[in-house]
Amino acid sequence: MKLEFDIGLIASDSISWGVAVFFTDLLFGGDPIFYQHLFWFFGHPEVYILIIPAFGIISIIISNISLKLIFGNQSMIFAMSCISLLGSIVWGHHMYTIGLETDTRAYFTGITILISLPTGTKIFNWLSTYLGNLLLLYFKISSALFNILFLLMFTIGGSTGIILGNAAIDLGLHDTYYVIAHFHFILSPAGFPPYERILNYWESAIVKRTFPFS
Fold this sequence. Notes:
Elements: H1 2-12, H2 14-24, H3 32-66, H4 73-86, H5 102-114, H6 116-130, H7 137-140, H8 142-165, H9 167-173, H10 177-191, H11 193-201, H12 203-207
């Protein structure tokens, strides 16, 4: 998390952007491709800055509703660390169509697909935490129901991301609604809803009232 934050802070600093414009402007002998690298070096980790806190919120709600620790708690921590690290070095998968070398595309393809391992670990650990509880419980508590919907949508979005991570396939899917669907399946359930869910879940403590179906 700190690594992602530091990268975003450095890349978004006004001085850094001033330098970036100087080195990427053709009038100064710069390279527009270099600008794209700088942009996505900031832009891709930004997505993980948004979603990693959401992962923590989902874990808190599932753990409290199930009245047990998250299954594979230590592996969840390791998975979060791996996602933070790998998410910082895969920016090139946004640039497959600009003419990257074959070896470079192969690197970004491999690392991008590799992110599915820690992410899949988190999904299966969340689902395993649900096991052993009454299924009806999840339809009576709105936070639990929204968590299940989050897992469904995020799994679909992540699966489309694995496909787009393949450089050869991405060339055909570039600039299509498939890319838009992937982006929205990831950020729609993860950008705002988890933060709203945690407020909803803890609202009884905030306003000193009891909401049995929150």
